[in-house]
Amino acid sequence: MEYAKLKLSEEKVFKDPVHRYVHVRDRVIWDLIGTKEFQRLRRIRQLGTTYLTFHGAEHSRFSHSLGVYEIVRRITDDVFKDRVNWNGKDRLLSLCAALLHDLGHGPFSHSFEKVFGMDHEEFTRQIILGETEVNEVLRRVGRNFPKKVAEVIAKTSENKLVVSLISSQLDADRMDYLLRDAYYTGVSYGHFDIERLLRVMRPHEDQAVFKYSGMHAVEDYILSRYQMYWQVYFHPVTRSAEVILTKILHRAKTLYDARYPFKHGPSHFQSLFEDRLSLRDYLKLDEHVMLYYIEVWQEEDDPVLRDLCARFVNRNLFKYIEFDPAKEFKVHSRLEKLFAEAGIDPNYYLVIDSSSDLPYDFYRPGEEGERLPINLLMRNGDLKELSRESDIVDAISGKRRTDHKLYFPLDLIEDETTHGEKKREIAALLKLPRSSEI
Amino acid sequence: MLEDHVKIMGALAISGEIVGRKKLQKMIYIAKKLSFPFQEKFEFHFYGPYSEELTLKVEELTNLGFVNEVKEKKGGYVQYRYTVTDEGREFLEMYEPDLSGLDACLAEMNGQNARFLELVSTVMYFDMLPKEEVKEKIFTLKAKQRYTEEEINEAYDYIEKLKKIASPVQQA
After folding, report:
1. Does the CB of B143 have a partner CB in chain A at under 8 Å?
2. Whole-Å CA distances, A190 to A101, A180, A225, A414
3. For domain A3-233, which architecture applies?
4. What are the residue ranges spanned by the domains of chain A?
5. Separation of alpha carbons B4 and B14, rounded Å
6. What is the 8-class DSSP label of residue A76?
7. Which residue ranges traverse the bilayer (chain A) (predicted)?
């Protein structure tokens, strides 16, 4: 029998706290889950450093990937099955793309990508198309099948409907991560009625749309997303941990370039530091490896690397204040100078971090825009863009909220055993309360 | 401070004025592909490579008063013009970005229309594919733009031209 159509003799299920069960019947999916590249996702947290703020957030990209697969499985096997505009032949392509969409994520992706200019999507492409177990499984389906899967994930496939299931303003990826992240962080926002959303979802030419009768479920999803971004994803403490992690990577790279004699040489990062990272080396990087180095680098002689690693391990994070770059850039410049004079390297200990989110936006005819809207399917068969019908969504459409914070090590500034005068000046500029006022 | 924002402002300052969001996106993408140090991540959208991060940073710079965005109606079409404000220039003087060699490339691209830059950036996005496959991609993914084979060839020639303009600096 053709491999693409092979079914397991008995359905396999994964117990899952979000979807209750993840069902697997296709041999291809089962084989993909068993590959070493997919198993690696067990060792990469879905939310990076968020576990230092919300202690429950230890869930992995493995569980999220299974979740996205399960949502797409429900769509293809139930919601879309036998409907006009849906081609059943796209089922396996959709399932594989859903399962593998995050395959190229590295450890603490956000920090790594920022420091080394890496792109996890490029690694997803390389894993799917390169000499890997995943590629071997996909090739058994068809010679061109790996390419088709990679194109759906990269959004360069001509099959826009399948792309929209995994990547749009209301897709299986976002549905799963909002519910999953809400569950594991323990927050009360982030929940929405996924059963209802799936029931009103319909295939329509080049994107999935939602029946008008389900508009309130869509509204609920948009608001959940808005709240999750500001309450969880952009939490200032999580950002502080990320700032420190980013600076650890910067410091390690700077020391490596300067031929610093590491007690614990960064062998896993060598090719990365030398800008010749191969796929094989990349796949060896995961959060276990990263955390091992952060642990042992606490013993290094370099005071900056040692200190930053100890901060991360012991959660002695940077403090922060609100910061307006437009009004205060001269203050920042002065602070940089004072930090240097006080013996606190501003390149590592004075950091501006910005977060910004757009809850929902859409392309209006006649305007330049690149965001495909969420469309409602009206009773007469017409499509209407969501914010035209929903007052709640209209109120937040296109409205971006940005937040700038300035991070610094409060303990070093408060330690006046050296450079007391400079540190008092720093404290005054940062408008820190005197210790007697805390 | 805000190093990545500073680079975008630097590119705008060098260009004098950039007309159109699409054009701005494509100019920065092409510059990044030519190895100029822009960090924004680009994905493939319906006008070709597009960076949400770039959109965000330009909006932030506008909100900070460092970049001026003028929205103007042109027939049935809305267009945006971008320039650096006096406050932005003052900020740039303090945090001068290293964009040496970029001026000639930007000047060259700023003289082209957004439609052509969309094609050039799309060709560059698929630079891992052989030319015939790139053509096929453009004909299927950008059918509405009705690019001709001749235009695609022009885009390839243009990329070579840009590489030559950029190369003395990139090799230095």
Report:
1. no
2. 22, 9, 6, 39
3. Orthogonal Bundle (1.10)
4. 3-233, 236-355+403-437
5. 16
6. I
7. none
For residue B37, the distance in angstroms to the closest alpha carbon of chain A comes to: 10
Cα–Cα–Cα angle for A68, A73, A76, rounded to 5 degrees? 125
Closest chain A residue to the Cα of B91, Cα to Cα? A329
pLDDT score of B172 more than 60? no
Determine, for residues A354 and B64 on separate chains, whether the beta-carbon distance falls below 8 Å: no
CA distances for A383 relative to A86, A197, A218, A398, B36, angstroms: 17, 17, 15, 20, 42
CB A171 within 8 A of CB A164: yes
Within 10 Å of residue A184's Cβ, how many Cβ atoms? Answer: 24
Point out the residues of chain A with pLDDT beneath 50.
Answer: 364-366, 438
* Residue B11: its H or E element: helix B3-15
Distance CA A61, CA A44 (A): 6
Instruction: Order across the sheet with A319-322: list the strands.
Output: A319-322, A401-408, A351-357
Cα separation of A144 and A159, whole Å?
Answer: 15
- A3-233 and A236-355+403-437 share one CATH topology? no
Contact call for residues A182 and A228 (beta carbons, < 8 A): yes
Which residue type does B149 have?
E
**Phi and psi angles of residue A205, each rounded to the nearest 5 degrees, phi first:** 40, -95
Give the pLDDT of residue A116. Answer: 87
The tokens describing B115, both together, are 């439609």
Assigned CATH for A236-355+403-437: 1.20.1250.30
Of B50, B77, B141, the CB nearest to A370: B50
Q: What pLDDT, on a 0 to 100 scale, did the predictor assign at position A38?
A: 98
Q: What is the pLDDT of residues B108-122, one digit of tens each?
A: 999 999 999 999 999
| Residues spanned by the domain of B99 | 3-171
pLDDT tens digits along A153-209: 999 999 999 999 999 889 999 999 999 999 999 999 889 999 999 999 999 988 999
Task: Give tens-digit pLDDT for A76-102.
Answer: 999 999 999 999 999 999 999 999 999
Q: How many domains does chain B contain in total?
A: 1
Q: Which two tokens stand for residue B83?
A: 């320039």
Report the candidate in A397, A320, A330 with the shortest Cα–Cα distance to residue A355.
A320
Of B1, B63, B77, the CB nearest to A352: B1
| A385, amino acid identity | E
Hey, how many other C-beta atoms are within 10 angstroms of the C-beta on A411? 11
**3-class DSSP state of A336:** helix
pLDDT at A154: 94
Residue B18 corresponds to which tokens in the numbers above?
């950039």
Task: Give the pLDDT band of residue B166 (cuts 50, 70, 90).
Answer: confident
